[in-house]
Amino acid sequence: MPQLVLVNPQIPPNTGNIARTCAATRTDLHLVGPLGFEITDRYLKRAGLDYWPYVSLKIHPSIEAFSEFHQQQPGRWVGFSVKGTTCSHFDFQFQADDWLLFGSETQGLPAEILEQCAATVYIPMSEPGVRSLNLSVSAAIGLFEARRQLQLD
After folding, report:
1. DSSP-derived pairing of the beta strands 57-60 and 99-102
2. Exposed end of the chain (fewer CB within 10 Å): N or C?
3. Which helix (H) or strand (E) is 111 found in, with range?
4. Domains in the chain, please, with CATH?
């Protein structure tokens, strides 16, 4: 089952919405600090509604701590970025143990993290004037495409 990783998320409602998606799909959610909010933030809780008990949440204080944790786990890092160079998320072949990494709302994934990814994919957008999609929308698109390919309910 793919896992979702948010690196330095900044906006509580986005993280709350992603947590709700993870709860609905029984997908593990990893938050990599530093976070732009307190985990007890009322906006975070409000966006996640009463689904927090159903979220498998792991918090890592830094990318180094997350990297150490990941070394003990199987699976590739798949970075999502408007600068993705591998292919679109539609053309990428997801694997069951992939880790889907998304960066902060303002910066995306830093170059040094993108370099550590086995692949960097992008979500195609038709309008060149639009810089990016909302983080919670992007995470849902990526997760559901992976689930579709893997034929997960």
Report:
1. unpaired
2. C
3. helix 111-114
4. 3-149 (3.40.1280.10)
